[in-house]
Write a structure and sequence with these properties.
mainly alpha; 4 helices; 4 strands; two-stranded antiparallel ribbon; 5% strand
Amino acid sequence: MRQSTGRYLQVATPEIFPGLPREPFKLRNSGGWHDDATLVPATPPELEICMNDVIVARALHVIAVAIWIGGVSMVTTIVLPAVRRGELGDDWLRALNAIENRFAVQARLAVIVAGLTGLYMLVRLDLWGRFTSPQFWWMHAMVGTWLLFATILFVAEPFIVGQRFAKWATDAPRDAFKWLQRAHWVLLALSLITIFGAVAGSQGWSVF
């Protein structure tokens, strides 16, 4: 977003305001044409999407993702290797549960907040059209990643995987924890790719 001197006119690129038409314009003292942007007034209603509710929603969304994926990174790169080396005791399952059971509460809350704030911004900014464009592949990635973790945290782990893994970890702890760490690496890799795509894509970068 840029401003000209005097009347403080705003420059809005289509990535920031996807609903605006792509029309060239020329700003006073700008020295050139901007072919992929639109000139909009610095007052509502065009700039109303910059209201405080969207700012707060985005801030809460980022905080939730930081807690959620940060926890996944910690478990993947620190907790599981320490458990498998026996640094947290001989009972691997008990050591893991002591940490993951506490983090699971935070992760579930973070996933709920991320989902609600993401949906709010999607509706508030009317971004549904992005799902039809390959340029915004990261929108699909964000939704897919959220659905994957929501399914794991609220369905698979408490009702399906948890009990089976506990039995497996008791009978063959090395195999069970080796599989668990690999699964966490896959989840972490998908999450980091999604975050990179979302941050870079929101700034106009695209692989397509």
